[in-house]
Design goal:
Blueprint (H helix, E strand, L loop, with lengths): L11 H12 L4 E8 L6 E8 L12 E4 L12 E11 L8 E8 L10 H11 L6 E11 L32 H14 L3 E6 L5 E10 L2 H20 L2 E3 L16 E4 L1 H4 L4 H13 L1 H7 L6 H4 L16 E3 L6 E3 L1 H6 L4 E3 L8 H12 L14 H10 L7 H4 L3 H4 L8
Parallel strand pairs: 1-5, 11-12
Antiparallel strand pairs: 1-2, 3-4, 4-5, 6-8, 6-9, 6-10, 7-8, 10-13, 12-13
The chain binds adenosine-5'-diphosphate and manganese (II) ion (MN) (3 copies).
Protein name: Glutamine synthetase
GO molecular function: ATP binding; glutamine synthetase activity
Organism: Steinernema hermaphroditum
Length: 411
């Protein structure tokens, strides 16, 4: 049963009076943002900070009720927030901040959904290689009824073809949101590098990057928060579901472009080929890291149709969009540059994705613990073991599972 409403919106002209108050204040309000128990959705809460922080380290740790976010039980519900990156707040403006946070349980261990902890360690090991990422975030807009924004209420729009990079009212919907999000990201200090309308009407993309190391995950997460927050003002819902409409409609991915300094220099093509060879051997493992369900979400999207390659087979090619890894034509021509991993789903955890790429391509690790195709119980156990105590990090980084190579970890 749908409750029919035109919009979720309140009257923004009334709200504007109060937003004006905020703009003239010198106080610093910090909005802490974190990934919740789904491993996908974001939560936030705000607090007034007494002195404006010079760096993120000066921001206080905080906590929240993890029993309300799927991150703790009621009896032991405190989850801790550790600020890790801060941005200018494009909503409150003035001295206000958006703060990306990691989550820790009350014994000081990174929460199972805190993939940033591991990612940051991996990135520091690979720092001298100067790894750059650029992620292409595809997303779909839904109206108040939960249907794709701009689609007819009964039936479907005309088949795909005219919508990708389209212009005009029959081709693209809600560009206002896209433009507002773009400006808000620039204001915040996010390296948003472009945007385009997608193949399915109501679907859009923006790109963030190139970002070095851990910044990729931080910036992409905050850009997603800003997107949901902007869309909230317009009464539109953003979904990052990788296949929102089954059938002959494109799904949504989060293509991840990658290079190291060596790949960007003359003759870097050899290093690109070497990295792709390693990714081929670790295909199933990587699928395990490329959506929050260990590959289950991507099953609906990576069908081998609609500009994707099959989830079950690895492939690579120059300029092809029906492959797992695409080498841009320019990279082939220059014999240097970057490559594109087309497998990550739109709702992927960017820390899990970029961490896995570095471990396989740069650190030559062959025993990543996740693996697509393993039983769900095994998957949960592995996730638990990834909770590493920061106090005993030296010993804890290698979990038991990672020692006992999983069936596809050594392929
Ligand atoms: P596509 O042709 O696949 O649609 P896009 O233009 O949407 O490509 O996205 C390309 C992404 O690659 C951007 O996020 C950009 O920042 C990133 N990028 C560009 N150069 C590099 C590089 N050398 N290393 C990593 N990422 C890069
Ligand atoms: Mn793109
Ligand atoms: Mn795209
Ligand atoms: Mn792409």
């Amino acid at each position: 049963m749908h409750i029919h409403r035109d919009t979720f919106k309140t009257d923004k002209s009334i709200a504007e009076r109060y937003y004006q108050l905020g703009k003239n204040l010198s106080d610093c309000v910090a909005t802490y943002v974190w990934i919740d128990g789904t491993g996908e959705h974001l939560r936030c809460k705000s607090r007034t900070i007494s002195t404006y922080p010079k760096s993120v380290e000066e921001l206080p740790e905080w906590n929240f009720d993890g029993s309300s976010t799927g991150q703790a039980t009621g009896a032991n519900s405190d989850v801790f927030l550790k600020p890790v990156a801060m941005y200018r707040d494009p909503f409150r403006m003035g001295n206000c901040l958006l703060v990306m946070c990691e989550t820790y349980d009350n014994t000081g261990r990174p929460h199972a959904t805190n993939h940033r902890y591991k990612c940051a360690k991996v990135m520091s090991k690979a720092k001298t290689l100067k790894p750059w990422f650029g992620m292409e975030q595809e997303y779909t807009m839904l109206d108040a009824d939960g249907q794709v924004f701009g689609w007819p209420k009964h039936g479907f729009p005309g088949p795909q073809g005219p919508y990708y990079c389209g212009v005009g009212p029959q081709k693209v919907f809600a560009r206002d949101i896209v433009e507002a999000h773009y400006s808000a990201c620039l204001y915040a200090g996010i390296q948003i590098s472009g945007t385009n309308a997608e193949t399915m009407p109501g679907q859009w993309e923006y790109q963030v990057g190139p970002c070095e190391g851990i910044e990729m995950g931080d910036q992409l997460c905050m850009s997603r928060f800003i997107l949901h927050r902007v869309a909230e003002d317009f009464g539109v819902t953003i979904t990052l579901d990788p296949k929102p409409i089954p059938g002959d409609w494109n799904g949504a991915g989060c293509h991840t472009n990658f290079s190291t300094e060596e790949m960007r220099q003359d003759g870097g093509y050899k290093a690109i080929e070497a990295a792709i060879a390693r990714l081929e051997k670790a295909h199933q493992t990587h699928i395990g890291y490329y959506d929050p369900q260990g590959g289950r979400d991507n099953e609906r999207r990576l069908t081998g149709q609609h500009e994707t390659a099959s989830i079950n087979e690895f492939s690579a090619g120059v300029a092809s969009r029906a492959v797992s890894i695409r080498i841009p034509a320019q990279t082939f021509k220059d014999q240097k540059g970057y490559f594109e991993d087309r497998r990550p789903s739109s709702n992927c955890d960017p820390y899990a994705v970029t961490g896995a790429i570095i471990r396989t391509c740069c650190l030559n690790e062959r025993r990543l613990s996740r693996c697509y195709g393993s039983s769900s119980e095994e998957f949960i156990e592995v996730t638990k073991e990834l909770s590493i105590s920061p106090k005993t990090e030296a010993t804890a980084v290698t979990s038991k599972h990672e020692d006992n190579a999983s069936s596809c970890g050594t392929q």
